[in-house]
Amino acid sequence: MVAEKRVVVVLGMHHSGTSVIARSLMVFNVYLGDDLMPSQPDHPTGFWEDNQITATNDRILVAHGFSWRKPGFDCARLKKHSTYQQTIRHIAQHVHRRFAHAPLWGFKDPRTCRLIPLWKDVFRLLKVQASYIIVVRHPRSVAESLRAKYRMSLRLGYQLWLEHMAAAVTETRQHRRVFVSYDRMLNDPKRELRREAEALQLDTSQLKTEPARSFIQSFLDTQLRHRLYGYDDVLPSATDTGVHMRAYALLDAMAADEISATAFHRAWKKLCG
Length: 273
Hints:
By secondary structure, the chain is α/β, with parallel strands linked by helices. The chain has one domain: Rossmann fold (3-Layer(aba) Sandwich). The protein has helices at 18-24, 51-63, 75-78, 84-99, 116-126, 139-150, 154-171, 182-187, 189-200, 210-219, 243-255, 261-272; strands at residues 6-11, 104-108, 129-136, 176-181. It has a four-stranded parallel β-sheet with strand order 2-1-3-4, with helices on both faces. The longest helix has 18 residues, at 154-171. The radius of gyration is 18 Å and the shape is globular. The chain starts with 5 loop residues before the first strand and ends with a helix. The mean pLDDT is 92.
């Protein structure tokens, strides 16, 4: 039975295509909020990211000595903090004021990957059923994009990619979710939209509406994709331990419906623990 109130959370590393996948949710009348981050010259199609949720995630990370660029954050330690219960109640109250009118709402912020346990506690307080989209993109595409924009080392880019993806996979295992490839969404949006809808029990009749046609024909633009790599495009040897490509292969297999959930988790546990 689907709960009356639902939230769809888009998870993935920065620069992995989460904005495009978040925008796709509007095809299914998922409410993304009324305070979205504005587009920028290097991101002309917009971020589709709620400013206030992003600011909340940032404040939590900074308060504990982290930022999205610093690896090693442990949400389990955060949950032991004396102010934790007060924090989640405050977030729940704020979110309720802004989204309670919407039976189906959602958000994306890559920082959420590191704070999923916190947000799951928020959802419990709100009594909303959470579903998740895990966005998959080649780690080299992500790392090189981060290097181009922030002068981040490739080694750090790969490390952050794996940390975000590992948290997203582990923390959502018992929940309704779907793995979506950013590149496949650009190449075959009709198929990927249907996968989203069927996996998350969204309204498939919306695939025949004007919002769907607008998303496919007007919003999506493969010219905005500056990097595209495949399995043969290995990571530079100075940074590649092998785990990144094996992790990507497993994630991409899930996004292509080429592996069962049981087989995926068995292999993922061996790889990432």
